[in-house]
From TrEMBL:
Source species of the chain: Ornithinibacillus bavariensis
Record-given protein name: Hydroxymethylglutaryl-CoA synthase
Domain Hydroxymethylglutaryl-coenzyme A synthase N-terminal residue range list: 2-165
GO terms (BP aspect): acetyl-CoA metabolic process
InterPro entries associated with the record: HMG_CoA_synt_C_dom, HMG_CoA_synth_N, HMG_CoA_synthase_prok, Thiolase-like
Source lineage: Bacteria, Bacillati, Bacillota, Bacilli, Bacillales
Keyword Protein transport recorded: no
MF terms in GO: hydroxymethylglutaryl-CoA synthase activity
Binding positions ((3S)-3-hydroxy-3-methylglutaryl-CoA): 143, 242, 275
Keywords tagged on the record: Transferase
């Protein structure tokens, strides 16, 4: 039985800051941001969007009434959770009006959460072939204004429906994973900002990739030449390229050129959204599928997932016949076209707008947020969400 990605969509906030202008404001050469780390724009989350609303908006785009009935498991991968107890999946389940007879959980392991969710989903589908699983990767990357990590911030969510007989990608069985207890990136529960050892994290990202790639080749009996493209978790778009370059000499010049060319297509969306943690790998996959017109049915796509702390995994998937018909290309083009640029000054004000930390009630103005699903405030320490389509 084939199991894999039946639908995939994403959502990013309606505002962004230009990285050239941010560089100038921070007295940094613009090329350090646009070429050095490979970012052009950074999505900015207004206070009316959090990890729950971003995920719900991403899923709203792809689900239909049949999905609402058949989805009996919602897995919410995030490191930007809003509650230490209640899962973001429960909120999304209600906001989307899904079948009440469903499981709903939140999964956490830095940027690896959504990948873990997909593997759990595969097991569920194997036991329940007629059901569907909604897997979400939703995050807001925050390091603070004028910090070394500021240029790698971002916000957004990816939603995927995992099912039997998938229409987009069958996920193969040659998964290889690796865990090691390291401190390259972390966020203690008392902090709303992440801590990162940037140089160490980059080194570990590449080290983990090399180790799981070597193990994958042995387990699957496949080589670089068998990959049409490799998609990477992208904290910034240059990171995946650094890892890819470490193995390119294993392949012929033609294969190297193909992988490098397709890598660029896989970074288009990430370059203009920024880091979305758990969703970054799958935003890269979506970018490849929607921006590389020459992709053919039956092509094998490699995928490298990395979550600091750290867990890494390499796996692959096969594009299904007619997969292009099941993408939401026009909707995503419109999403980017409708976004509004804000100045660096406006971005700084928006960044500092947060919910009260003392539990005070607050009503937020959601009329300025065009998203269908918004955070409208808090009452009695409870977040309030609105689905404008209801």
């Amino acid at each position: 039985m084939k199991i894999g990605i039946d639908k995939i969509g994403f959502y990013a906030p309606h505002i962004y800051v230009d990285m050239n202008k941010l560089a100038v404001a921070r007295n940094v050469e613009p090329e350090k941001f646009t070429i050095g780390i490979g970012q052009s724009q950074m999505a900015v989350a207004p206070v009316t969007q959090d990890s729950v609303s971003l995920a719900a908006n991403a899923a709203l785009e792809i689900i239909d009434d049949e999905d609402r009935e058949k989805i009996d498991f919602v897995i919410f991968g995030s490191e930007s959770g809003i509650d230490h107890s209640k899962s973001g999946a429960v909120y999304v389940h209600q906001l989307l009006g899904l079948n009440p007879h469903a499981r709903a959980i939140e999964v956490k392991q830095a940027c690896y959460g959504a990948t873990a969710g997909i593997q759990m989903a595969k097991g569920h589908i194997a036991l329940n072939p007629d059901s569907k699983v909604l897997v979400l990767g939703s995050d807001i990357a925050r390091y603070g204004l004028k910090t070394s990590g500021e240029s790698t911030q971002g916000a957004g969510a990816v939603a995927m429906i995992i099912s039997a007989n998938p229409r987009i990608m069958e996920l193969e069985e040659h998964n290889v994973y690796l865990t090691n207890d390291i401190m390259d990136f972390w966020r203690p529960i008392y902090s709303d900002m992440a801590f990162v050892d940037g140089k160490f994290s980059n080194e570990q990202y590449i080290l983990f990739f090399n180790k799981v790639w070597e193990a994958y080749k042995e387990k699957a009996g496949l080589q670089l030449s068998d990959m049409e493209a490799i998609c990477f978790h992208l904290p910034y778009t240059k990171m995946g390229l650094k890892a890819l370059r470490t193995v390119l000499d294993e392949a012929s010049e033609d294969v190297q050129n193909r992988l490098l060319y397709n890598y660029q297509a896989s970074t288009t969306y990430n370059r203009n959204v920024g880091n979305i943690y758990t969703g970054s790998l799958y935003l890269s996959l979506l970018s490849l599928l929607e921006n590389k017109e020459e992709l053919q049915d039956g092509a094998r796509i490699g995928m490298y997932s990395y979550g600091s702390g750290a867990v890494g995994e390499f796996f692959s998937g096969i594009l299904q016949p007619g997969f292009k018909k099941h993408l939401f290309v026009e909707a995503h083009q419109q999403l980017f076209a409708r976004r509004k640029e804000v100045s660096v000054e406006e971005y700084e004000v928006i960044f500092e707008e947060t919910l009260p930390k003392d539990g005070s009630d607050i009503e937020l103005d959601i009329t300025k947020d065009p998203a269908a699903i918004c955070l409208s405030g808090t009452i009695d320490n409870k977040r309030q969400y609105v689905n404008k389509l209801r």
